Amino acid sequence: MTGNDINLEMGLSLPIMEHFYTIQGEGRYTGTAAYFIRIGGCDVGCHWCDVKESWNANIHPIKKIDDIVKTAISFSKTIVLTGGEPLMWNLVPLTQKLKESGCNIHIETSGAYSINGQIDWICLSPKKTSLPKEDVYASAHELKVIVYNQHDFKFAEEQALKINKNALLYLQPEWSNREKMTPKIIDYVMKNPQWHISLQTHKYLNIP
Hints:
- The protein has a nine-stranded mixed sheet.
- The protein is an alpha/beta fold.
- The protein has one domain (3-204): Alpha-Beta Barrel (TIM Barrel), CATH 3.20.20.70.
- The chain has helices at 3-10, 65-73, 92-100, 134-139, 151-162, 178-191, 201-204, and strands spanning 13-23, 33-39, 62-64, 78-82, 104-109, 121-124, 142-147, 168-173, 195-197.
């Protein structure tokens, strides 16, 4: 096992696809300035994923968490961990250092892996190919279901039955099919007002 392998296992280094300061475009914190850390690696395999280049962790540079934190906190104290699937990795050291720096940590996850690390806001976006773990259902703060076709409304209802009662419920049109599905989502939310609409507003604003 190489030094990089050991550091990855211990969470002292992570494969980082990209990191950037922007405006959160989705869910509860839409419109909030935040620093995004996109961690490489995902085995969930959604066919409509818009960041498939994140899937192979081996093609992304390995960065020490000390360097990641130093850069992140120079921009914002609101940090979003995303991917890929960030919970594939040991996030304990990274989140500990971010918390020591006074950060509020959000994560966007499919829930296919159990929660680890210190996370303040969990956005669960479940996928049919690999359903969430029970602990993620229990601790998620928001449930965000991507709507690509009509069957996804049924999937959303099934997921809402599993999520904890305090979680906010969002339906979000898949970007490539948004013109067809957005009117259907509007109609569904008007009939089922416990749900809210989430849009990928960052794409409309042409920002990362």
